[in-house]
Amino acid sequence: MVYLTRKAEFAASHYYHNPEFTPEQNRALFGKCNNPNGHGHNYTLEVTVKGSVDPTSGFVVDLKQLKDVMNREVLDAMDHRFLNKEVPEFLHQIPTTENIAIAIWQRLAPKLKAAQLHRVRVYETPDLFVDFYGEA
Amino acid sequence: MVYLTRKAEFAASHYYHNPEFTPEQNRALFGKCNNPNGHGHNYTLEVTVKGSVDPTSGFVVDLKQLKDVMNREVLDAMDHRFLNKEVPEFLHQIPTTENIAIAIWQRLAPKLKAAQLHRVRVYETPDLFVDFYGEA
Amino acid sequence: MVYLTRKAEFAASHYYHNPEFTPEQNRALFGKCNNPNGHGHNYTLEVTVKGSVDPTSGFVVDLKQLKDVMNREVLDAMDHRFLNKEVPEFLHQIPTTENIAIAIWQRLAPKLKAAQLHRVRVYETPDLFVDFYGEA
Amino acid sequence: MVYLTRKAEFAASHYYHNPEFTPEQNRALFGKCNNPNGHGHNYTLEVTVKGSVDPTSGFVVDLKQLKDVMNREVLDAMDHRFLNKEVPEFLHQIPTTENIAIAIWQRLAPKLKAAQLHRVRVYETPDLFVDFYGEA
Amino acid sequence: MVYLTRKAEFAASHYYHNPEFTPEQNRALFGKCNNPNGHGHNYTLEVTVKGSVDPTSGFVVDLKQLKDVMNREVLDAMDHRFLNKEVPEFLHQIPTTENIAIAIWQRLAPKLKAAQLHRVRVYETPDLFVDFYGEA
Amino acid sequence: MVYLTRKAEFAASHYYHNPEFTPEQNRALFGKCNNPNGHGHNYTLEVTVKGSVDPTSGFVVDLKQLKDVMNREVLDAMDHRFLNKEVPEFLHQIPTTENIAIAIWQRLAPKLKAAQLHRVRVYETPDLFVDFYGEA
After folding, report:
1. E2-132 CATH choice from 3.40.50.1000, 3.30.479.10, 3.40.1230.10, 3.40.190.10
2. What is the ipTM for the molecules in this complex?
């Protein structure tokens, strides 16, 4: 059983706002992240899959397939996008790093075959990241 | 004569668009950066000043003053902002990394005293950066 | 259940010495780290908390509160300090990276509320780090 | 119980090829990695050991001994080598990152004493890495 | 006048050997880099161009064109190659980092149009790099 | 003419204090860096030499000699030391990053032979560094 991790980057903008809060509550909780024009990040995504090593290839997963799935399911949808306006999961959910990691898990898990999704890590900045393992 | 560099980060969103171009021209030149909703980056700013070392302090510049100037002139204006809509220089100028570096130079150069501004470097991503030395 | 990690840095000095060892034993075991004048590092601290995502905020933890706790309990006490002389835990215990990670856990665990402390990671250099999960 | 990780680097070359495949199958699966002249990487190795902290030293493991074992068992054998031709494990096994991590585990596990091997991580590039925990 | 730098990576193998030296001289000068099987690196390439900013685009250079030139002239030739055997410049010249930087300059300089090549930087490892500015 | 840069790290402690200032002046100018117990950093040193490429070796400088000079003249003197107390240059001069860079230049310049010293860069933290080119 080995764990393989592949990184990718995407550049997106977002803002934090709960429509059920008053403007004062939104500003108090979200601070400058509440600016409705949005601001952005170079998000770094790490996708970890686990499985046994195929003795004929030496691979736990075909890297080209993993790259294709990550591009199609995540990067094509989120790269160079305003998450709140253009990504379905975030039309009615706040695009925090926590929720982005969960959304990426839900996009990837059903599409991976030979290897099993183990962890999704999302860095919002080099100093802040979230891990999701699919745990309820 | 020594050169001292201080780094800082800001998170902002932007998009590329020239109103004198047709939509087709904008898309051809700017690609996915033309999305009017904006997308974002963790910009890294490096400010380099040069001067002689003050023998009583061992400093070429007081780091607290340099930090204050960078915060007041650049970060307060650009961090967590949509550059095209909220930063005056980019209301009528495309906020490319090149133009951001020049704008930051023009904001900082008149405010620095003991030490002289030598270079402004702006990273849009870890793999792309621009240097401006104030050269016409 | 998600895991959120926030990084911070502090600059401190320390040295390694066991008063029950002879000078020869101390030098043999600790080498140049035994220099009583101390030497220093830019320590990088990663604090990981875990919890469920609050649906009204999208957060597992309020980042401002996490930052405040880390600053008050750890950075104010250890940053720009000689650990052996100025931090209570290390007056009678060797400030190895192992012991620093345990001390930081013990400082943070009782102060975190909504989310639970999961891991403390301390880098002494980019090439050496210790993880502590509160396991006996 | 703490976990200590030490990093090291080695520069090696390799290529991917299964002699039971046809040339077309090898090219289809391995792409440009199938070039028999080899290509290379700066591999980064992270070795994690776990154990309790010795109260007389503050260490979970003597770092000099850990460094010596890593140098003797791994770096002396793999650094500046063509893995397929010069490292016994890869004379008849494809030197993928997965197999390299497993081989390093098998070299290190029997040689570590006070502390127990917990994880071997191998980065082939900054964007691709494999973890092995000794799990069957 | 601004300077724009774009990074790229390539993985290659090489070895150091001067056929006019004796085997002893080669080993004395080149050490383990003299192994004829080759060893490898993840080379990082930084290409810096300079020019004035086009006011209609905000660009000093069209990034897609720069990327295309770097891919076609350098990466297609050197990535996943054994430099001594497969890259013409190094059939009769030692592929040191110095000579790789010069060869890349000579490949790129005639192909860049709007902007002028300013510097080629090549990292062999994170701790060793060479800059070439086209100076005789 | 090529420029080759080699990095190295050293861990040292220091504090900032001018004996001609009052305690209040020292605290006002140096803040927490004035703590006389000292604090520390993982300093990163980059040494750049320039010269023409020797056609028989492909080198601008013999890397083993460069490493030896850096170890003997700088690292042996400064690594794991309290700079104010144990390094002659700083017994009567404040060990700021500026002064450390100048001291390292003065130690290295007379010892380098084939290649000429071009720049000394010292990082105190990843976000603060000083360059010295030997300019009066």
Report:
1. 3.30.479.10
2. 0.96
